[in-house]
Structure formats: C-alpha cells, structure tokens
Amino acid sequence: MRPPRPRAEPTILHVDLDAFFAAVEQRDKPSLRGKPVVVGGVGGRGVVSTASYEARLYGVRSAMSTAEARSRCPHAAYLSGRFDAYRQASRAVMSLLRDLSPLVEPLSLDEAFVDLAASGHTDFSVAGVTEIAQTLKDGVREATGGLTGSVGVATSKFMAKVASELDKPDGLCVVPAGTEQELIRPMKVSVIPGVGPATAERLRRVGVHTVADLEALSQDELVRLVGQAHGTSLYHLCRAQDDRPVVAEREAKSVSVEDTYDTDLVDRRLLEALIDRYATRVTERLQKARLSGRTITLKVRLHDFSTHTRSTTLPSPTDRTRTVSRLARALLAEVDTSGGVRLLGVGVSGLADWIQEDLFEIDGTLAEDEEREPAEELPAVDLSRLGRDRRWSPGQDVQHEEHGPGWVWGSGRGRVTVRFETAQTPPGPVRTFLVDDPALSPRAVVDPAAEPEATRVQTEVWGPSEV
DNA sequence: TCTGGGGTCCTAGGACCC
DNA sequence: TCTGGGGTCCTAGGACCC
Predict the structure, then answer these.
(1) Whose C1' is closest to the CA of A393: which nucleotide?
(2) CATH number of A254-352: 3.30.1490.100, 3.40.50.620, 3.40.50.10490, 3.40.50.880?
(3) Protein A420 CA to nucleic acid B8 C1', in Å?
(4) Is A242 annotated as a binding residue?
(5) With a 7 Å cutoff on the CB, does A18 touch strand C?
(6) pTM for the structure as a whole
(7) pLDDT tens across A60-108, in order?
(8) Closest among A266, A283, A287 to A346, alpha carbons compared
C-alpha cells in the first residue's frame, strides 16, 4: 500500500487562539488583564478549561482539577465561563478563515484547519504563506478586539498543528516542505495526535520516548502493541506521512447531555427526575437540529469513578422527550447505583439526517396523548418482515409497496406511512400512520377491522431524502 | 480537596444471516 | 451432516481530543 503522502507545498494552515476563554475574559474585564485567570468548573468537582498565561506560571493547566488549581494559584480569578461570548468571538474568527479559503474545518471554538490550496492563492513559498498567516493574525486581532492566535502552515494537518504549537502564544510558524521529519524526530511521542497517556505509557514500556524511537518499530510491532487502526496511523505519522483532507462539513453522530454532582446521589426518584431533565435537553437539541436518533444511551459514573453505559436501539429514530426519557429510565434499572452516582448522562446516537414527525397523527389531528394506549389494543402486525433484505440507506429514494388490506410491511431506518383507501374517498389518504414510534415498534399499527370500508391499504416507506 | 462536558473513533464479542 | 466463513448490527468499554 502506498504511504499517505503530504502535499508538495505548505498549503494547510492551522489556527489556535491563545488561552481562548481566559483571553476573552481579560478582553472584556480590564481588571483581569495581566492577572491569572482560570475558566472552568468552579464547583467542588470542577476542572480547568483554560488558564491564562499568568496562571500557567503557577502551574495551572487545562484538565487539572479546579481544587488543585486553587491550591497552586489561590489569588487567580476563577470563572465558570460565558459561552455566548466565546461563540461570538469564534464566529468572527471562523468568518475570517472562510474569507481566506472556502475549505475550513473547525475543530472547536478556538481551533481550525484551513486548506489554502482551495483558495485563490498560488504562491505557497515560505514568504508567500508567511504573509497569508501574518495577515490572518492581524485580522484576528482586529475582528476580536485584541485576541491573539497562533498559526502554523505546513504540508499536512499534523505538521500544521505541530507548527502552530511551536511558538505560542501569538506565534507564526511555517514548516517548509521536506523538513518535516527532522523537525519532529526529537519530539516526544505525545506530539502525535492519538498518543495520549495510555499509548505513551505502552510505548514507554518498550523503550519508545521520541518520534525517532517510534520510527524504529515495524508496522507489525506497532499494530501488535496498540491495535490495527492506531498502529497503522502511528507508523505513518511518525514519518510525517499524513494526507488527511481538510473536511468542512461534518455531520453530527451523537448528541448528549451529562452532569457531575458535587455530592454523590442515591435517591432513585431524584435520578429519574434528572434523567427526564436531560432527555428534555437532548431532544430539544435534536429537534432544533432537525435530527432524530435510534440509539438511546444512559451513562452513569459511580462513586468510585467507574463509568458504565447502557444503551438500547429502536427500530426507527425518535426525537421525542417521553420516548428518550422512558427508555433511559429503564436503562437505569440495569445499573447498581446503591453506592452513589457521581455523574448521570443521556445521549442519542445513530442519528438520521431528516426531519422527524414529532407526533402520532390521526386524521390530521395531533394526538400525542393517545400515542401508546390505543396502539397496544391494536392487533399488531409484524413490521420486521422487511428485515435485512429490504434495508435502505440514507439518501436513497422512496420505496413504495402495496399489499392487501391490513397488511403492512416493515420498517428500517425510515418511516412507514399507511393509507387506508375507501371507495367513498377517491384516492387519497384516509389515515396516515407514522410508524416511527418506538413504543409501537417493531410491531405496528394496522388494524384492518378498524377500517371496514377499506378497499386497499397502501404503504409507503420514506427514506431520509424524501422527507 | 483528585479526576468536566461534549464529542469521535476503535475494539471485541455475540447474534444473526447467508 | 458435527461443522465454515464472511458480513452486518448491536452493545460495552476505553482512549483520545478540545
């Protein structure tokens, strides 16, 4: 297999705003300028998101517990963060980046890759890209009321990120094509994306500390050590072989809400009430984004910090609060919480990228409260008949099938609409059922006896692109 | 007064299907 | 007829990133 080759010229730019959250606070509150500022969780179990450079002098770092930060730097300002302000500053910067090139990949509020090759630029000499980077930095300062960013430009994402890190804060670094390997060889293995504490420890045990050490291992050895995907990626990255593209639009794969409590919780009813609250927040976000998902996950962190997840997958996607909360509550029953719960979370994944009807519709009347009881009285027809042979994928066209009265065939990830047509009502839907309710699935919904006049039952299966 | 919250990706085992 | 192998889906956990 051909190794992933970096680009021939430094066309990938990485920007990283310096101590972003803390810098926004210092910008907006002059009294904090020049002083240690720590943004993060301020409660008993909080951790540091960002420390200003003044606070870093005292050894305060991101991801450190706030308790430890307070002991290292008691006189710092501890703030819980104003995310609207951060988002606003971030938007201003991202918009500058999009002026630079249409191909921008935000990694977070304060970080992004830009593919300069997708812009109108043609001069990718060191002087040429340095000028682009300097103009960008000036623009950032102006657009954000004085924030600084560090910029790296190189032939790959990996090297651009290494470069932006190199002379923070307010840095600018270009890695000329061909000099990548000599730059990273003396560095610690942890500069490689994907090498965190666990991998670093495994490598340390076999005597690997630097990128150069890593080069001495064969691909097979690496795969044996850290697994297939990780090993292969490490083998190439330590040689600065990286051709990952800048990807502008990434579709969300999951949405979740979680909370850590200052003291462990035991009361079951309280836990259930919290689950309801999180289900509400999650589904509100789903609905806002016009998403729905099939897999509901409950996350529980116990008093001993052990973390457990329980999940369940529905036949069709949902964005309904009641469904998510009912299922998440049921999952809670599978976890022994008697020792106390430190964190609780609810998530939805397996997202479908199409609009979810949020109500069970009968005769055009929205009848949310009737969703369950009537359904359970109906003689359910097995929808799972569709099974594996009639699966479809997102974006595929509408599928359409007709069967005899009372017959319905099944659902996959789409939705099934069932129409009963009668002689008196020339063509058109008499009833439309949206078979997207997990309470009904995988069985549904069709009661021929309820429609004695029906001459025909027509079903349509909607793939995502139809809706 | 140890260890956030929001994500992504990977692995491994079992079920199930052909 | 005592025995296969590949593919997909699901679940749980873990590593990692910002």
Answers:
(1) C8
(2) 3.30.1490.100
(3) 44
(4) no
(5) no
(6) 0.79
(7) 999 999 999 999 999 999 999 999 999 999 999 999 999 999 999 999 9
(8) A283
